[in-house]
């Protein structure tokens, strides 16, 4: 049926898939937990969120107060701010696909698949480039 | 409306968006943005910020299952990600050079055409007489997946890889320019040009859209467009919906996935054309 080397190749391919799958699952579960905790903390610290009809407007119109840089985020986390915890969870979520590309490179190195090590590295470089250029432009 | 009611309502609607997005390889922004802006009167900036988050949530939430079940073709995804990220980069530079109105109209027409072409393909025998493709052979893109609906290991071949690459570049440019619709172009490109099975196309698109969105999400965060109060229930709901949806895709008949995709694609194309016509 299948010769030995081919079977080995299939096995190692499957290993790559399981590694990537586990990474995605871990990223998603972690970020979900942090987001939920952050939301609960927000509601506990601001009991008026349960009853007030004016607060929503303040929270969701431009100019609403929340961190938009890492130092602000760290400060918010230090003072146990719910919204900063939520943002941390969102950043974990955003980082997951980038990390996935990085881990794929390692997986292809392990499989000794040079062409795909190159392809995946190019993707990672383009991705990081868009981060840098985006920051410069934005 | 109290913040509590807003959070619960957004969470519930986002679950639906996550299920649909994970089945069809789309971001879920097509549901999240109109609901947030039209129904809940959230500022468009924060709605778009939340929708970028929802794309990543759909992608990562569902991909864990799709990759494990080998519905995602990892090698095709990696090759095409070069094209989409390059396209997204060019799109960011072209923004402002190319006018919005015609882009929406052209994009709307392309999607309308794609949905008709995909609908007409519904009775085709899968993979009948495919032309050879040296690049797909060289990169070992051909693969197989286990179709839980027919309970068969289904081998498939990939074709027209260079054309697929060009179409993905265009998909990347459009999403970089308009900030939307990357999945809506990716699935037709894989289905019509590269001739992947429909489930493999939506699962592979689902896998790729996360990377494209992550590239721009950092910018949205730095610009202060990701409001944690809006994005939290969206992210949580979409993740849960996507994880749930990912357990169905394998079991649903391919033809039903195709028809559902066509309906949603027509809806997106109408939205695009409408935006183009009413462009201010």
Would you spell out the secondary-structure blueprint of this structure?
The complex is a heterodimer of chains A (138) and B (280).
Chain A: H1 4-45, H2 55-60, H3 70-78, H4 82-110, H5 114-137
Helix pairs in contact in A: 1-4, 3-4, 4-5
Chain B: H1 3-24, H2 29-39, H3 44-68, H4 74-94, H5 100-120, H6 134-138, E1 143-147, E2 152-156, H7 161-178, H8 182-193, H9 198-222, H10 228-246, H11 254-277
Antiparallel strand pairs in B: 1-2
Helix pairs in contact in B: 1-2, 1-3, 1-9, 1-10, 2-3, 3-9, 3-10, 4-7, 4-9, 5-8, 5-11, 7-8, 8-9
Mean pLDDT of chain A: 84
Oligomer: heterodimer
Instruction: Kindly estimate the percentage of residues of chain A that lie in beta strands according to DSSP.
Output: under 5%
Biggest sheet of chain B, strands in spatial order?
1-2
Structural class of chain A: mainly alpha
**Strand segment tally of chain A:** 0
Q: What is the ordering of alpha helices and beta strands of chain A? A: HHHHH
Shape designation of chain A: elongated
What is the beta-strand fraction of chain B? under 5%
Helix/strand-derived category of chain B reads mainly alpha
Q: Low-confidence spans of chain B: pLDDT under 50, at least 5 residues? A: none
Figure out the total of helices of chain B.
Answer: 11
Residue share in helix of chain A: over 70%
Number of helices of chain A: 5
Low-confidence runs of chain A: none
Largest sheet of chain A: none
Count the beta strands of chain B.
Answer: 2
Main sheet specs of chain B: 2 strands, antiparallel
> In sequence order, what are the helices and strands of chain B, one letter per element?
HHHHHHEEHHHHH
Alpha carbon gap, first and last residue of chain A = 57 Å
């Amino acid at each position: 049926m299948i010769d030995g080397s081919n079977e080995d190749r299939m096995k190692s391919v499957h290993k790559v898939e399981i590694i990537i799958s586990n990474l995605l699952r871990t990223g998603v579960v972690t970020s979900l937990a942090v987001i939920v905790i952050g939301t609960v903390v927000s509601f506990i610290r601001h009991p008026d969120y349960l009853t007030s009809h004016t607060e929503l407007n303040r929270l969701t119109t431009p100019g609403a107060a929340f961190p938009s840089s890492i130092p602000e985020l760290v400060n918010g986390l230090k003072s146990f701010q719910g919204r900063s915890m939520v943002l941390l969870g969102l950043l974990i979520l955003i980082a997951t696909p980038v990390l996935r590309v990085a881990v794929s490179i390692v997986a292809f190195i392990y499989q000794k698949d040079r062409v795909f090590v190159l392809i995946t590295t190019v993707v990672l470089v383009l991705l990081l480039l868009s981060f840098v250029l985006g920051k410069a432009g934005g | 409306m109290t913040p509590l009611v807003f959070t619960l309502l957004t969470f519930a609607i986002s679950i639906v968006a996550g299920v649909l997005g994970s089945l069809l390889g789309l971001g879920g922004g097509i549901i999240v943005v109109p609901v947030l802006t039209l129904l809940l009167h959230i500022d468009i900036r924060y709605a778009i910020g939340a929708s970028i988050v929802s794309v990543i949530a759909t992608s990562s939430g569902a991909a864990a299952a799709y990759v494990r079940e080998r519905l995602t073709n990892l090698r095709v995804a990696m090759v095409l990600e070069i094209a989409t990220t390059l396209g997204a980069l060019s799109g960011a530079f072209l923004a402002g050079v190319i006018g919005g109105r015609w882009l929406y109209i052209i994009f709307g027409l392309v999607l309308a055409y794609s949905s008709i072409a995909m609908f007409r393909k519904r009775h085709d025998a899968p993979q009948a007489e495919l032309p050879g493709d040296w690049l797909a052979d060289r990169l070992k893109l051909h693969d197989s997946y286990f179709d839980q609906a027919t309970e068969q290991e289904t081998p498939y071949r990939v074709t027209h890889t260079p054309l697929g690459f060009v179409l993905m570049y265009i998909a990347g440019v459009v999403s970089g320019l308009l900030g939307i619709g990357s999945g809506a172009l990716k699935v037709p490109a894989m289905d019509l040009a590269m001739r992947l099975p429909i489930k493999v196309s939506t699962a592979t698109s689902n896998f790729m859209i996360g990377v494209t969105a992550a590239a721009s999400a950092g910018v949205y965060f730095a610009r202060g467009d990701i409001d944690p109060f809006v994005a939290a229930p969206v992210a949580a709901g979409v993740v849960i919906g996507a994880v749930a949806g990912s357990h169905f895709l394998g079991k649903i008949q391919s033809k039903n996935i195709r028809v559902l995709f066509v309906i949603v694609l027509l809806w997106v194309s109408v939205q695009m054309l409408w935006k183009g016509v009413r462009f201010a």
